[in-house]
Design goal:
With about 700 residues, the protein is α/β, with parallel strands linked by helices. The chain is about 40% helix and about 15% strand. α1 packs antiparallel against α11 and α7 crosses α16.
Length: about 700
């Protein structure tokens, strides 16, 4: 077979396959078989159906394409290159250079390449979400589809359809095995997301071999039970059958669609169904043999015929430009008819906030009984969401406990028959909840989700991706400590805060009272490229009197840590510094009074956000924690991991070194040493050691 014997569609598909083979071979690393096998389906989608303008890859009403089987990244890099997708900078201005050049493909998986081993959002334009951990992509696509439906419900008008985009996700056998995919598919079926299409690339090969060694279920039957429309393509190379499957999706108005495609690793006798082709290069002879079978020049690397480039330009390029141009004209007409709504859309796309967005954020009066920080957070969230109409979120079936329900007039619930609601019911699906929130944030909504802190473990992979992608999702966690009490160690978080703090780019807030909560939300609302985790108490915490009491202002939460209570004016420097977060700040304040009765002057430092404190200049660090004052006590009802850098060698820590126990709160506090007496005793021990060291 030669190129003269191949029709243009087949030549285009085989060109994609050639690029995928060559990129993996040159890198000596990667997965060539999967992108080669499913290339005809991806080509048909991009060339005939995808509403996407390569010249403007962030056009708001574009269809989304998610490569959930991210190990097949060369497929996406090849498509972005052949379609001529333009790069976009973080300020959302098209830069006028290709997102993926041939040189990028030639440097696949190398340092600095725009073609990394798995798709990375904000690194390569045209990537809608970071994928790699299997199942994450399809789950995130559910959030995108829910966001698209919500945008249509809020902003479309009879004469103006601004939002009607579809979401496509390409998944593999591994995605279907992961639990998060099942969580998300169940939710999508309930939500009747007819704008969502998953393409299941069933090539029946994983790293260990044929899927039959571990995966024998009837996937089609499973999705029918979820309430999906299911259609099957017997041969991925049958472009007419693939076309009919996409047409079936476009015709479906009440259900999400699963297109089950039977494909073969590599497609071609030299590599067909080879586990080696799934996870490693084919080798020089394997590449030549495959190219010979496909009718490609055996001696040409990264070969792209001019007619293939023209094919993409005349297909997705021309169609996308026409659709985007018509949308922009329609938007200008919409702006004249609905200026307020148009302003919302534009602000949302830039991640800007409305004028006066913080005008109703509450300031809480002093109260020795106070509120649980989950309660005050619920009040602040409602005040914020009422002024920012695109704040939307829900809970993993715990909204009554996490206090995240929006209750103002018009908030409503988002359900299939009322998609404009602001409250999402995500079910007992922590992992999918976080991924859905990611998908919504990628569609520019300000999304949040909530659950108990202990269950953040279930969602960790999706939380990690929100940090990796630099998207401003708000992860709200309540029941933050052994304060959960009788529920016992299965529900009492110990290591979770340390784990969240370990994530690069995630801001973790643990406020000590209602006004610190307000200030945390004030900062979170303005984030554009950072996610936040808000860690909140179940039990009531006093609201501090900061007016004329000598207490530091709650606005200093923006600095991450600050001097909440210091020694009396004119008394010199503190003898000891007590550092704490959340509920333990009040314990430190009580211990400060006890220490004062013994003639020991203590400074209390509230540390609601370590990450922000670490960003402050050294001069500020030294003001809050003077280096020469080494007598320090850190207090937190959690693992002590990470505290050493603040308390130093001369300090001590009061924290959790074991799991908790099932008992009333007061008994637990005594058992684990969270009492003013224990803090006072520890502070005196630290001072004694310091004095002894100074006299040596």
């Amino acid at each position: 077979m030669t190129t003269l014997d191949i029709d243009l569609d087949t030549l285009s598909v085989n060109t994609i396959r050639g690029l995928c083979m060559d990129a993996v071979e040159k890198a000596a690393s990667g997965h060539p078989g999967t992108p080669m096998g499913i290339a005809p389906v991806a080509y048909t989608l991009w060339q005939r159906y995808l509403r996407f303008d390569p010249a403007d890859p962030i056009w708001p009403n574009r269809d989304r394409f998610v490569l959930s089987e991210g190990h097949a990244s060369t497929l996406l890099w090849s498509l972005l290159h052949l379609a001529g997708v333009q790069a976009v900078d973080p300020d959302y201005e098209v830069l006028g250079r290709p997102a993926v050049t041939l040189d990028d493909l030639k440097s696949f998986r190398q340092l600095g390449s725009r073609c990394p081993g798995h798709p990375e959002y904000r690194w390569t334009s045209g990537v809608e979400t970071t994928t790699g951990p299997l199942g994450q992509g399809v789950a995130t696509s559910v959030g995108m589809a829910m966001a698209g439906r919500w945008l249509a419900a809020r902003y479309n008008r009879d004469d103006f359809t601004l939002f009607d985009f579809d979401v496509y996700a390409l998944a593999g056998d591994g995605c279907m095995m992961e639990g998060i995919a099942s969580e998300a598919a169940s939710l999508a079926g309930h939500q009747q997301l007819s704008n969502l299409c998953w393409i299941y690339d069933s090539n029946r090969v994983t790293i260990e071999g044929h899927t039959g060694i571990a995966f024998t279920e009837d996937v089609a039957a499973r999705f029918l039970a979820y309430g999906w429309n299911v259609t099957t393509v017997a041969d991925a190379n049958d472009l007419d059958a693939v076309d009919r499957a996409f047409h079936s999706f476009r015709s479906e108005s009440e259900r999400p669609t699963l297109i089950l495609v039977h494909s073969h690793i590599g497609y071609g006798s030299p590599v067909e169904d080879s586990p080696k082709a799934h996870g490693s290069p084919l080798g020089p002879e394997g590449v030549r043999s495959a190219k010979r079978f496909l009718g490609l020049p055996e001696d040409r690397e990264f070969w792209v015929p001019d007619e293939v480039r023209a094919r993409f330009e005349q297909g997705i390029g021309a169609r996308g430009a026409e659709l985007r141009g018509a949308w922009e004209q329609r938007f200008e007409e919409y702006r004249a008819a609905w200026p307020t709504l148009a302003d919302e859309i534009q602000r949302m796309q830039r991640r800007d906030l409305p004028n006066g967005w913080d005008s109703k954020l509450p300031e809480f009066p002093p109260d020795p009984k106070g509120l649980a920080t989950r309660e005050s957070s619920g009040q602040v969230l409602n005040a914020l969401a009422e002024r920012v109409p695109w704040v939307i979120g829900g809970s993993a079936d715990l909204a009554p406990s996490t206090k995240t329900r929006l209750t103002f007039d018009g908030a409503g619930d988002s359900e299939p028959d009322e998609p404009y609601g602001r409250n999402l019911h995500l079910g007992v699906r922590e992992h999918a909840s976080a991924a859905v929130a990611n998908g919504m944030a990628l569609t520019k909504l300000r999304s949040y989700w909530s659950g108990f802190l202990i269950f953040s473990d279930y969602a960790k992979a999706a939380i990690r991706l929100s940090a990796l992608m630099e998207i401003p999702v708000v992860h709200i966690f309540t029941h933050d400590s052994i304060g959960v009490g009788e529920d016992g160690p299965t529900h009492q978080p110990v290591e979770q805060i340390a784990g969240l703090r370990a994530l690069p780019g995630l801001l973790v807030f643990r406020p000590c009272d209602a006004n610190e909560v307000t200030e945390a939300w004030r900062l979170i609302a303005g984030l554009r490229h950072e996610p936040a985790a808000l860690v909140l108490s179940r039990q009531a915490l006093p609201t501090l009197d900061r007016s004329g009491s000598g207490f530091g202002a709650a606005s200093e939460v923006a600095l991450g840590a600050y001097v909440l209570a210091d020694v009396p004016s004119g008394s010199g420097e503190p003898d000891v510094i007590l550092l704490a977060t959340g509920s333990e700040v009040h314990l430190a304040l009580s211990a400060r009074e006890e220490l004062a009765s013994h003639g020991i002057q203590a400074r209390v430092v509230s540390m609601p956000c370590w990450e922000l404190f670490d960003r402050q200049p050294k001069e500020y660090h030294d003001r809050v924690l003077p280096p020469h004052i080494t007598a320090r006590v850190g207090i937190e009802q959690a693992s002590t991991f990470g505290w050493d850098r603040y308390v130093g060698d001369g300090g001590a820590l009061i924290g959790m070194h074991t799991f908790g126990a099932s008992a009333p709160l007061k008994q637990l506090l005594t058992k684990f040493g969270f009492t003013p007496e224990r803090v006072t005793e520890t502070a005196r021990e630290v001072l004694a050691r310091r004095k002894e060291a100074m006299t040596r």
